[in-house]
Amino acid sequence: MTTATGTTAPTGAVGAAHTRVEGLAKVTGAARYAGDIPYTELAHGWLVLSTIARGRIGSVESAPVLAMPGVLAVLHHGNAPRVDGDYTGPLGPPDPILQVFQHDRVPFAGWPVALVVAETPEQAREAAEALVVHYDEEPHDVAFHAGNPRSYTPEGPQAETSKGDLDAELAASAVAVDAEYTTPEEHHNPMEPHAAMARWDSGRLEVVDTNQGSKFVADELAKLFSLDPASVRVRSEHVGGAFGAKGTRPHQVLAVMAATALHRPVRVVMTRRQMFSLIGYRSPTAQRVRLGADADGRLRALDHAADCRTSTVYEFIERSADYGRSMYDADAHHTVNRVVPLDVPTPTWMRAPGEAPGSFALESALDELAEKCGIDPIALRARNEPDAGPVSGLPFSSRNLLACFEEGARRFGWADRDPRPGLRREGRWLVGTGTASATFPVLVAPSTAAVTAEADGTFTVRITAADVGTGARTALTQIAADALEVAPERIRMKIADSDFGPAMIAGGSMGTRSWGWAVTAAACELREQLALGGAIPPQGITVRSDTTKDLATLTAKERYSFGAQFAEVAVDVTSGEVRVRRMLGVFAAGRIINPLTARSQLIGGMIWGLSMALHEEAVRDEASGGLVGADLAGYHIAANADVPLIEADWVDDPDADDPVGIKGIGEIGIVGAAAAIANAVWHATGVRHRDLPIRPDRVLLAGTTAGAEPAYGEVETPGVEGASGVEGAPGAEGASGGDRDA
Amino acid sequence: MKEFGYRRVSDVSGAVALLGAEPDARFLGGGTNLVDLMKAGVERPGLLIDVRELPLDRIEATDDGGLRIGATVTNSDLAADPEVRRRYPALAQAVLAGASGQLRNMATVGGNLLQRTRCGYFTDLTKPCNKRVPGSGCPAIKGEHRNHAILGASEHCAAVHPSDMGVALAAFDAVVSYETAHGPGELPLTEFYLPVGDTPHLETALPPGALITGITLPPAPVAALSRYRKVRERASYAFAIGSLAAALDVQDGVIREVRLAFGAVASRPWRAREAERVLAGGPASAEAFAAAADAELAAARVLPHNGFKVTLMRNLVVATLTELTEEAAR
């Protein structure tokens, strides 16, 4: 089934389902990934990471390792070439983790302290694991919790917004919610690990990588190594997932360092465990939401204060409190993001940064408000639809949230829902349904593209786009086909090569929109040129575009995608198991270029939301400062058996200011999904779960006093309270548990 | 990773002799745990002795009505065996509750018994662990221990045994057979794993150099009505946070025989003999089931974050025995 949206272009490629243009190469193994490609004389670098969470490197005992078979070099802070981190890139100053081996300080467990280079990966690994590093250890602090006295509000206008008199409106409210929500440290480990090969070729630095933006990485490497940007070429043809983790990371820097030192190609591939400290992750959050409303649910007060954590070397803010700035208005409206620096790796952008945890808190709080007001959760949201940006006052470019709810409610069967919790039982399962809104900003960034009419009647498009598994290469082919008014089969789409010029990275749900704009601009101009007639010379006719000027004409508006998430869950409160039975997401996210890959991307986001609700949690060991179980056996994501019927669809929502009508779909699928599930768990059991993930132990002990004394040192035998629900009483136990507001 | 040798053996005595000659060697079954531990650096054998081609891949009925299961029978074949499914259904259910289809196709019965704990400290060389490095300490006691032991642990180690299969085997009085250079031997599964005490690195009572050759299940008519219930943090492909193998023979509301074993609560599959004692000859009622669970769990010693397992196991005992009672009445 496909849902065509927007106007149909002449060839009709945009909006039609299209399998991936590189699909055959991928499923036959012909597609090569950065870690796969053989090179003559290739040497292999293996990272050594710190085992302490804070302190200094005393010494690196290289000598015994250099005597091991095949070992070529040991790079560390005592011998590494200097790099220059004093620059500001498009996304701000670089994370100091890119300035690898420049000093002896260790700011967290898992910080790079050495690179062992050897003839084979096995030799490099064995030597790296044998390398002895002595440390001068210092006390560390990795414990994140709300109200840490070292928390602060960052500089800059985006940290905090405020209007109205919060205390006065809360006091005047007939109904109020005041609750704290937490989300744990979460990791975005792509299936394909980070891998980069670097070599010098005729005076140029060549890097074969897996990343979200080859020009972005090339420019950053040029700055770090003080090179002419034109002398650095980065390619990243196929990428096995990225999710915000694949910008410039230490492996590319180290591959360049080693290739430069050894005068031969060097590849550095991360292990899964190394990825857990080197590629960024989502900070844990502690969020307090206060809502005040009239009896009919109209919001008088909205206060969202979100705490997150960063490293001691770089300030990265998980902007959870941003979520409400566009979603809901109130007479008094306050949002603030705070951060505390701890001895942990620097977090980074992870799919829907800010919106994913922020929507869990605010959309859960709205469900609590709906319960207290005694009105339907969808009606509550409809009652609080703003006419303009609640904080900015700017008009919305389009806002089709209610259309998503209308279509979603119809398909999900929401009208038949009994709002009372804890009533529906099927065997040992209590069943409930929940809903939540979703939103994500619609942004665009300057990009360049080149489109060539070849003499043989085909067309070649060159753009430094990245297909991180989303289907961007295919979508851009469709966009080019419509702009050129030719069949997609005549288009050759070349991407992910920094030599093609500046372009937006695959990030912020902005990739396809930013690239599609540039491709459309060049292709339309080329089509007009070709319409004048004349022969095509052997080298073809090439038209280049740069969207910088076009984008500068965009007027200030509230530009967002929207969505409505629905979930049905079954909960066994005697075992604590929660199973999602079905999910439905309906989105208003601009014109959909390729329904086939778009649906896959949206469903992928929703499944991630399911994982966020029930499974994902990195456990940081306070004693060592490192993670426990830092692999995909220890860090759970949903298995196939956890993923039930999941449907994603969309309503017509073309963006009038975009030449193709695109808004972007990369991230909105995860937004609100965890809240919809948590709200459904409440509907099933009557117990609010405000801490993610909703683990079996939490469900089992909810509504009971879980505090048991430590067994060792102070031996006590616990009673077995909390088990009263075994014989038919679990529903009652859940219903009587009620709120557990602190 | 350390370079290692690889040898395939075709007879049991040759396998035992080879291991005896190479103190740095390990037997390799399916490798589904050993190879992972080698990648992590926890195991560093110099030689792997592949025992998969030994003639130990049969499941045979014994003269007295039990079953003898060869050590190299795969988990998949064990779970699919018609006699296992008919006589010991909880065993087949337990095996199918573990791992994935691909892993079960590789994993062997002998290897399953010898798999190591999945405690996150044990598998991480950067952290202390008394089981991996005796005397280095147990950070789990004050750290991450939500899925650690509530029964039979010590202040030196609170790791749990990961096997599902072993829980059902413990309930059915399985006996482990092995071969050494000095001849064969046997150990009841309930005595196969050593108490934790202050030697968590010593895990089994197998003599040094022994090769597990098989498992014998004595006849157990009670096992015909049995069930394995596994609770985990996701629906599939996760180790238990609590599991139960239960078998029940009830007539006219009176329990004639009951078998109970707990998983994911101790360093070994935990045969719940105290609960069985409380139930034997008594009424098959929810109250009796709860009282029996309480009797077994009275010995529980919990850490700050694993106390839920007491509630969980109590609930599982009551729910599962209630189901079996209802099934017996049909």
Strand order in the largest sheet of chain B: 4-5-8-6-7
Biggest sheet of chain A: strands side by side, in what order? 3-5-1-12-9-10-11
Cα shape of chain B: globular
Could you give the order of the helices and strands of chain B? EHEHEEEHHHHHHEEHEEEEEHHH
CATH architecture title of the domain at 23-31 and 445-552 in chain A: 2-Layer Sandwich
Summed up, the helix count of chain A is 18
* Structural class computed from helices and strand pairing of chain B: alpha+beta
CATH architecture of the domain at 222-329 in chain B: 2-Layer Sandwich
Mean pLDDT of chain A: 93
Shape category of chain A: globular
At the fold tier of CATH, the topology name of the domain at 23-31 and 445-552 in chain A is Aldehyde Oxidoreductase, domain 4
The stretches of 5 or more residues of chain B where confidence is low (pLDDT under 50) are none
- In angstroms, what is the radius of gyration of chain A? 27 Å
Roughly what percent helix of chain B?
A: 25-40%
Classify the beta-strand content of chain B into a percent band: 15-25%
CATH homologous superfamily designation of the domain at 23-31 and 445-552 in chain A? Aldehyde oxidase/xanthine dehydrogenase, molybdopterin binding domain
Number of strands of chain B: 12
Percentage of residues in DSSP E strands of chain A: 15-25%
Protein name (chain A): Xanthine dehydrogenase family protein molybdopterin-binding subunit
Biased composition (Low complexity) (chain A): 718-733
Region (Disordered) (chain A): 143-162, 705-742
Domain Aldehyde oxidase/xanthine dehydrogenase a/b hammerhead (chain A): 28-139
